[in-house]
Amino acid sequence: MTENLYQPILMRVADVRDEAPEVRTFRLQFADDADRARFFEKYRVGMFGLYGVPGAGESVFCVASPPTRQEYIECTFRRTGRVTSALADREVGQPITFRGPYGNSFPIESWRGKNILFVAGGIALPPLRSVIWNLLDRRAEFRDITILYGARTVADLVYKQELADWGARSDVRLVTTVDPGGETPDWKGQIGFVPTVLDQVAPSSAEAVALVCGPPIMIKFSLPVLTKLGFTPDHTYTTLENRMKCGLGHCGRCNVGSTYVCRDGPVFTLDQLRRMQTTDM
Amino acid sequence: MKVIEANKLPGLAAALAGAGYRVVAPIRDGGEVRMVVWSPGAAIDTRAIPVNSAKDFLFPKAEIIGRCTLDGNDFRPEDVKPVAPKTVILAARPCDASAMLLLDAVFNWDYKDEFFNARRAATTIVSLVCTTADEQCFCTSVGGAPDATAGADGVLRQADGGRSFILEPLTEKGKAVAAAAGAALAEGQAKADAPVEVPVHFDAKAVTEWLGENFESPLWREVSLACLSCGACAYACPTCHCFDLQDEATRAESVRLRNWDTCGLALFTAHAGGHNPRPDQAARWRQRVMHKFSYLVERLGRLGCTGCGRCARLCPAGMAICETCREIDEARKAAVK
Ligand SMILES: Cc1cc2nc3c(=O)[nH]c(=O)nc-3n(C[C@H](O)[C@H](O)[C@H](O)COP(=O)(O)OP(=O)(O)OC[C@H]3O[C@@H](n4cnc5c(N)ncnc54)[C@H](O)[C@@H]3O)c2cc1C
Ligand code: SF4
Ligand code: SF4
Ligand code: FES
Asked: For B156-194, what is each residue's pLDDT tens digit?
């Protein structure tokens, strides 16, 4: 007899950090060590999970922590509706349900020896944060790491402590920016929209891959800049966030054309995106 | 051969129920024939096409797939086992039986769904060779036939001008049902009636091909205009399998339910932030047709339509997927000329 695919495991909230208005990071500990082992056997950066509160339901978030840290997982989410509110109300020590990891992953093993560019906007840093830490925890295997991250205002920047840590490292080039008008008097980063700043920073595309995650408008205007810089569509990666329920390829909710985001994604190259049947990109 | 007089079908149902089967059959209740669980006195009607499909007994409208006991802010996930009674579906139409093969593929696509699989394993499907059809039937356009046996464990053939039926087991499960029927089936001879003829309305391969190249066709807006987005077509469909997961809770317990859902509804793909990748009914009807005639063919090698015609029989707005496919086939032929 097979197992119930929908049977969640139990996680406990070990730490809560407020990142930005209504945006929260949970550090989650596996209640059962056997579940932890099973999770990390499968987990690669880019995969997602279903985080739930009984009575409210389940929500999809990426796993925002890397497989190089096996004591816990982290997720960062915005309070939006019913499930995310119930999750946000959980306190340290309280349990949540978890299913996963599901989906595909970033092919980081094929990036060894390459230069890596991260371009992120707003609440879309979490899916890249796991990749960033994964690469930093294996720093010697990769060449230059450039991170360009922007948000509407200074308050909207997530992972403020980590941004400070990455900025202080000599082996990372971090550029942060806020939209014009979103700066504070003591803001030391750039002021300008992500695509504009990307154009100014002009990272080299030689031996490089780019990862872009952000609001659709940011992605739309960043892609031409990346093309201009010489990043090819098969070396440019992003993630899709279609509505999901099962995460298993069964419920029929997440598909874009014949692509099921939950099983074929959420990680796609720009090349793959362009071949999908959709009017929504 | 195993033979039964037509007016003794309830006796067959009774014998199988006596042998421990939950018996599902086309039952006439007032003006409608529906696939429901047989009970003594129920009238089995093999001539009308049931309103609902046999899918309901493999993939129910609502099903508990998770359960937690709650204790303040703490809780404990409990084990949930599938409800899978030993079942025989009598006189399922061939278009319902063959739909099982698509559901098998979907619910076992990488991940194996034990709820569906347990019921599938516990269910025997005895299909009916159709001697009646109506103008909405188009099985022959999508690879089926009134006497097809794909997905069936046994087959009932009407014989001797409707006076009797021949039961022919096709699998071990089918043989077990024939054995359980005992004296309800007699050993005898009968001459099977000819299956009904169902005309071919379109070339499904050509439709699939056209769909691959016409995501942006103006046809989608035209054909979807009448659709009210009620979902009746999907709920009646033997292959539609999209579902929602929803929680319900009391103070002591919460359950997670798997409920039927459909791509025809506006909220199906709506994001929490308000954005909807399928913003209008044209996009949603395109998804319905594309999923059945293009995406499933590409991903699982099967059409998602068995030509049962239920969607068209029920649609309050007169939409018919057969008609859409016929139009597509016409459009393609016109383009080739
Ligand atoms: C691959 C992937 C990765 C993602 N990663 C992240 C991430 O890292 N961080 C993040 O913040 N977001 C992420 N998201 C988005 C996130 O899943 C949604 O924002 C989140 O589920 C909230 O959406 P929701 O409003 O539908 O959920 P909720 O509103 O929390 O509700 C979930 C479900 O409950 C039901 N529901 C919602 N509101 C109500 C109501 N008022 N009454 C009744 N039912 C209701 C709906 O059916 C809904 O689908 C990701 C999405 C995907 C697909
Ligand atoms: S039954 Fe008709 S009106 Fe209702 S969703 Fe289907 S096509 Fe639209
Ligand atoms: S789409 Fe319509 S005709 Fe085709 S199988 Fe479903 S209900 Fe039957
Ligand atoms: S989330 Fe259910 S099919 Fe992808």
From this structure: 999 999 999 999 999 999 999 999 999 999 999 999 999
- The number of residues in chain A equals 281
Cα–Cα nearest to A159, from A279, A20, A3:
A20
Global pTM value: 0.93
Per the CB < 8 Å rule, is B111 touching A80?
A: no
CA distance B94 to B87: 18
Q: What is the full DSSP assignment across A162-196?
A: HHHHHHH-TT-EEEEEE-TT---TT--SEES-HHH
- A184-192 long-range contacts (CB < 8 A, ≥24 apart) are A184/A154, A187/A154, A190/A150
**Binary contact (A252, B263; C-beta < 8 A):** yes
- Identify which of A7, A242, A250 has the shortest CB distance to residue B113: A250
B238 Cβ inside 6 Å of ligand 3:
yes
The predicted-structure confidence for B255-283, as pLDDT tens digits, reads as follows 999 999 999 998 999 888 788 989 999 99
Q: What is the pLDDT of residues B206-229, one digit of tens each?
A: 999 999 999 998 899 988 989 999
For residues B324 and B307, give the distance between their C-alpha atoms in angstroms, rounded to a whole number. 13
Domain coordinates in residue numbering, chain B: 2-336
How close is the nearest chain B Cα to the Cα of A20, in Å?
Answer: 17
As for the ipTM of the complex, it is 0.92
The domains located in chain A, with CATH, are 9-101 (2.40.30.10), 108-239 (3.40.50.80)
Please identify among residues 43-102 of chain A the ones whose CB lies closer than 8 Å to any CB of chain B: 52, 54-58, 80-81, 84, 90-91, 94-95, 97
Q: How many angstroms separate the alpha carbon of residue A263 from the centre of ligand 4?
A: 8
Question: In this structure, which residue's CA is closest to atom 2 in ligand 3?
Answer: B311
Distant-in-sequence contacts of A183-190, Cβ < 8 A, 24+ apart: A183/A153, A183/A154, A184/A154, A187/A154, A190/A150
Cβ within 8 Å, pair B80-A2: no
Q: Taking phi first (over 0 means left), then psi (-120 to 50 degrees means alpha), and beta for anything else, what does residue B180 get?
A: alpha
Q: Could A250 and B79 be called an inter-chain contact, meaning their C-beta atoms sit closer than 8 Å?
A: no
